[in-house]
Amino acid sequence: MSRLAHVTSGPYAPPAAVRELSARSADGARLHVEVHGPERAPAVVLAHGWTCSTAFWAAQIRELAADHRVIAYDQRGHGRTPASPACSTDALADDLEAVLTATLAPGEQAVVAGHSMGGMTVMAAAGRPAFRAHVAAVLLCSTGSSRLVAESTVLPLRPGRLRSRLTGRVLGSRAPLGPITPLARRILRYATMGPASAPDMVEACARIVHSCPRAVRHAWSRVLDGLDLDHGLAELRVPVEIVVGGADRLTPPVHARSIAAALPNCLGVTELPGVGHMTPVEAPDLVTGRIRALAAARIPAVPAVPAVEESA
C-alpha cells in the first residue's frame, strides 16, 4: 500500500493479518484477501465501500479477531487488488463468491458485513450459490439499492433534476483529490461524515479515500450512478440488520427504510443521530457489536478439537 493508504497508529491503524491470499474471481481477476483471528473461530466477512480498502475495517478487525476469524478483502481497483476493466454489480457478486469459496470450508457459514458499495455487493450476490451456501446473516451499513444520485444530499439543493445532474458530476469527477490538507479534511468530513466526527476518524478516512486511484474512483462512480439492485432484495433471504447514519449525505436513511421494507427477513434498522456515511469508523463499537451479536445468534458453534492424551 502507498504511504497515504492508512494511518499507522491509533484505533484505526489496521492490524497485521494472520495470513494473506489471493482469491480468483470468475473472470480471472485476483483479489487481495486478509484473514485475522483464530482459524477455527466463527467467521466474519467484511466488504468495504467505494474508494475504501480493508483498512476501513481496522476497528472491527482489531476487536473481532480476538474470538472470530475475520476475512476482509479489497474490491477491484481498491487497496491491494489490481484494477480491472470489468466494473459492474455482476463483477462485485463474482468477487464476493470467490472470497467465500476461497476462505470458507464446505458447509461453513459466516456473517457478512457490507458498507456502502460493500452492501451493494451483498445485494448483487444474494441469489448466488456460494452466497446461499455460506452466508448465515448480513449487516448492511450505510448503503442503498438504487437512486443513489437522486437521493444524495451532498449538494444543499432542492431535490430534482438540477441537483441530480450536479451531484452526478461531483461524485463522478475525474479530478485528483490531491494532498490531504485541512481544506481536504473539511470537504471529506462534510460529504461523508457527521459534523462531530473526531479528528482521528477524519484522518483515517482521508488517508484511505485519497489513496484510491482517480481512474478507479471514476469507473466505479459510473456503476453507482446507474445502480438498480431493487430486484435483488427479495433474494436476500437470510436475516439482515441495517445501520445508517442520520446525517448520511451519500446514502441517506431513506435508502435504509426502503431496503428494510423490501427484505424478506429484516431484523431492524438502527439510525444513528449525527453520524454520517462512514458508520464503521464513526460508530465502531456499535457496528462491531452488531456483527458480534449476529455471529453469536446465527453461526453454529464450531466443535472443539478433542485433546490428544499422551501415553504413559
Automatic annotation (TrEMBL):
InterPro entries per the UniProt record, alphabetical: AB_hydrolase_1, AB_hydrolase_fold
Keyword Hydrolase: yes
Domain AB hydrolase-1: start-end pairs: 44-287
Record has Hydrolase as a keyword: yes
GO terms for MF: hydrolase activity
Entry superkingdom: Bacteria
Gene3D superfamilies, per database record: alpha/beta hydrolase (3.40.50.1820)
Keywords of the record: Hydrolase
Protein name in UniProt: Alpha/beta fold hydrolase
UniProt source species: Streptomyces heliomycini
